[in-house]
Amino acid sequence: MTYDFELFVIGGGSGGIAAARRAAEYGARVGLAEAGRLGGTCVNRGCVPKKLMVYASHFPEQFEAAAGYGWNLGDRSFHWPTLMNAVNAEVSRLNDVYQSLLDKSGVQLFRQYARFVDEHTLAVGDTTVTAAKILVAVGGQPTRPDNIPGIEYAITSDDIFHLPQQPKHMVIIGGGYIGSEFACILHGLGTKVTQIIRGDKILRGFDDELRSEIHGSMQQQGISIIDCSEQIEIAPTADGVTVRVATPHSETTVCCDVVSLAATGRQPNLNGLGLDRTGVEVKQGAIAVDAHHRTTVPHIFAIGDVIDRLNLTPVAVKAGRGLADTEFGDRPTVMDYNTIPTAVFTSPEMSTVGLSEAEAIEKFGADEVQVYRSRFRPMYYTLPDIKVKTLMKLVVQKSTDRVLGAHMVGEHAAEIIQGVAIAVKMGATKADFDATVAIHPSSAEEFVTMR
To answer: Domain of 98: which CATH number?
Structure first.
């Protein structure tokens, strides 16, 4: 049978575009459907605009540090609309870049929604197309918990980039990385922030010592964190909303102008796809795939947030390119989900690769795990006498001396761990780290001088 396309991609996010372009490079006829803006969550509502806001939020500390180095900066103020206009202009520029990349690669772009008619046929707007292979890369979307009365008065993380005015007081419900990042961003920009979490610490799933370090630092900076919440109610007022929080020991009411549900979770964006017209299996709200990102229908694949495996943009991009290499380039590739570095852009920043201390102990036993750590004030903060600490940590297997995990809380953590991740991925030992000459003076040198 002859098909209109050898590969049709549903979704124009980073992963879908990467797969489409790589397949086209191999000479495949490729189509891609995206009704919204190109670039997906990362470019439009996630990594890129968020990181630009992170940069903006760091200037108050930099102004303070500058005084310690002899600079007199005078009066200063922050203008929210200027930042938002600049951020959204950059997002628009990146959309144009993605459009240009698709045009140059020869991928045929459809600016409509696509849904399955059958396992080889898609309705794309008013058009019907057929494809030999189909890739689902539609990403995810933020969810609103239905057990919070007044939830309709809250916004999600997607909406923050389009607020016309800076919130005076924002309540963030949730202690995940998105909520914690926005708590730090908005606090740095001058918004009063209250963060409500269910557990006793933010950032569940990361190394406990790093979680405690960031949790305490955020509180020290002035972010109010209400932990162990059991019941939340939201109600409108003339000036905004009130949020009532009940914990095992107290009940608190917070008055604010904006509530953000930035970290109450995300879910795969499956609505309207027509998967019920196929044999594709959905498990726990996500598309089930094998090691090659193949669904239960052999010619239908899925990558990125829609499989809810490890929802990171570089993971989706690598998976998309590997899929194209396998299916069209005769270069079989299996995505390795182990030892993937990640970062959380809180203040202070955190980055990590490999096993946490608890994970290492669970896997190998406490007698097999040796932990090395260094906690210090970076040189940058000595002259302005700012009380900022950096924490670095190596988790090592005793019998093999192999570094199982590397973790950092502090300035430039992501930049530093990206390089360290190469060594961890290659199976470097603590002796290899020790044999590496340090760059002095730097914070990164602590990773090769720990004793």
So the answer is: 3.50.50.60
Domain span including residue 200: 151-260
Q: Does 341 map to a domain?
A: no
Report pLDDT digits (tens) over 270-279.
Answer: 999 999 999 9
Residue 278 and residue 119 in contact, taking contact as beta carbons nearer than 8 Å: yes
Please check whether residues 367 and 427 belong to one and the same domain.
Answer: yes
Residue at 338 is within a domain: no
Interatomic CA distance for residues 35 and 124, integer angstroms: 10
440 noted as active-site residue = yes
Catalytic residue among 187, 293, 412, 440, which?
440
Quick one: pLDDT at residue 432?
98
Chain segment 330-354, per-residue pLDDT in tens: 999 999 999 999 999 999 999 999 9
Q: Decide: helix, strand or coil at residue 141.
A: strand
Total-model pTM: 0.95
* Regions in the chain scoring below 50 on pLDDT: none
Helix H or strand E segment including 425: helix 413-425
> DSSP for 376-387?
E--GGGTTTT--
What is the helix, strand, coil percentage profile of the chain, to 5? 35, 25, 40
Q: In this predicted structure, what is the pLDDT of residue 263?
A: 64
Same domain, 320 and 372: no
Residue 335 placed within a domain: no
